[in-house]
């Protein structure tokens, strides 16, 4: 990952990566940033103002890199407040946001947003092959033909190619055919490529893991759970 590259580490300090998701709360977000910098949890309730002051002291005159991943909130006022807090950094400090929403990019950015395009079919196929034919000296030409049809349905989405490639590794030809011809591909919606891809992976899990997966789904997104507590549940 570029974030962990030595050149990035030498250029920026501190480096912070925060998953924001759709549950935007300024106090929770600032607390998470402070905890990441200090490398320890903050216990007890704290008001927003002391948290803001704490963060500014940690970032003051620092050439920091802050990655806000998976941003969904479109409230311009909230982001303006956060930007004001972050302005204490040194020249060259950088805030990078990732989002699927163009409006968020225009609200957050002072630079032109960089829009990632889908993979070409050729690159999508190469990514699929790396997972589907790993450790195989001889590749079945029938699987190649079926695999290329599956890759066409991935829509150039890397997650789709990687997930299906890993799922079909060492599987029989009949299972490849079943995935290719599955009615799941006919599902509609904005996430049309992702959900049909992930559903077979879920159905191939052992029953006990499927039950665990469903149980964990009742918790809010990005909930941090201690493993001992999860086991006891």
From TrEMBL:
Residues 2-133 form the NB-ARC domain. SUPFAM superfamilies: P-loop containing nucleoside triphosphate hydrolases. One of its GO terms (biological process) is defense response. The keyword Repeat applies. One of its GO terms (molecular function) is ADP binding. Belongs to the disease resistance NB-LRR family. This is Disease resistance protein RGA2. It comes from Solanum tuberosum.
